Amino acid sequence: MTLQQLKYVIAIADNGSINLAAKALFVSQPSLSGAVDKLEEELGIPIFLRTNRGITLTPEGSEFLGYARQVASQYQLLEERYIEKTVGKKTFSVSMQHYTFAVKAFVETAKAFGMDEYELAIHETKTYEVIQHVHNFKSELGVLYINDFNKKVIEKLLRESELEFHELFPCHIFVYLWKNHPLAGKALITMEELDEYPCIAFDQGMNNSFYLSEEVLSTYDYKRIIKVDDRATNLNLMVGLNGYTLCSGIICEELNGSEYKAIPLDSEEVMHIGYITRKNALLSPLAQKYIEEMLKYREYVL
Questions:
Q1: How many alpha carbons lie under 13 Å from residue 77 in its C-beta half-sphere?
Q2: CB of 15 closer than 8 Å to CB of 21
Q3: For residue 39, which phi and psi values (nearest 5 degrees)?
């Protein structure tokens, strides 16, 4: 296996076509196909599935691509620093469940470095994908929560993916709703009081297990529930339907505005919010700064 073969795989995946990748790399299509065939034979796995409709990554190929990108990226950094004597763009990527404070920490991280050139990425996504993104090197960090209910399942997934969970802080459960919601004036809310209002939960797609739910109390028998894919829709439904969601209680008005509030839920449930990394990973300065920014929110919980 060579670095050139890794670059070939990345180019094919990015272009979605061997012909287009060959043109981008200025090599012949037969040479490119032959190099990938030899790599697949050496690895003993099919990286691409070739059909009349085109080429797609196999599940094994998707995992391999993540490692290939990491190796190619690290080689580029070495080349820039020690051969070309230049410093390239700073890069950092994080995947997360839908936490406003984690987005705000990302904003502050980008501001703090004051870099002229960078390539950053932030992915608000499903729980299982947060884990997969870190495992497959798409993201350096992942942000999610663990509680007594989902702990065994999440920890099993992390072990299988060779990842580690690092707690940031524990927090009680809050009801997040519109400031004009009928229950917005209460100091404490019970689940029974919420029964007549729709619970808004983030859809987990094909991995829609109770254990992977982004919201705690996922096994509660909700009378009304609405699944959404993004935070903006969540907020709109809070206003339009007097909906609510269950959260950590950390509100960032700079991002979501002052139209919403968090009220404690009458529950002993505790969620432990943290970040995941690959085992024994050496974190980049950007990742370290991002963690530092997230830790500032400790003072808002418990």
A1: 10
A2: yes
A3: -65, -45
Query: Which residues are CB-neighbours of 30 under 8 A, at least 6 positions away?
Result: none
Residue 77: burial class (beta carbons within 10 Å; 0-12, 13-18, 19+): middle
* 164, burial (CB in 10 Å: exposed 0-12, middle 13-18, buried 19+): middle
- As a whole number of angstroms, the distance between CA 43 and CA 34 comes to 14
| AA identity, residue 251 | I
C-beta of residue 10 within 8 angstroms of C-beta of residue 2: no
Return the SS3 of 214: coil
Whole-structure pTM value: 0.75
With the C-alpha atoms ordered 271, 209, 67, 94, is the resulting torsion angle positive or negative? negative
Q: Is the pLDDT of residue 85 over 70?
A: no
- Ramachandran quadrant class, 114 (left: phi over 0; alpha: psi -120 to 50; beta: rest): left
Q: How far is CA 76 from CA 1, 69, 122, 177, in A?
A: 17, 10, 22, 47
Strand partners of residue 263: 175
What is the identity of the amino acid at 54? G
**Residue range 32-70, pLDDT digits in tens:** 989 999 999 999 999 998 877 778 899 899 888 888 887
Whole-number percent of the chain with pLDDT over 90:
59
| Alpha carbon distance 190, 35 (integer Å) | 62
Cβ 171 vs Cβ 294: under 8 Å: no
Give, as one character, the DSSP assignment of residue 241. Answer: H
Confidence at 86, pLDDT banded by 50, 70, 90: low
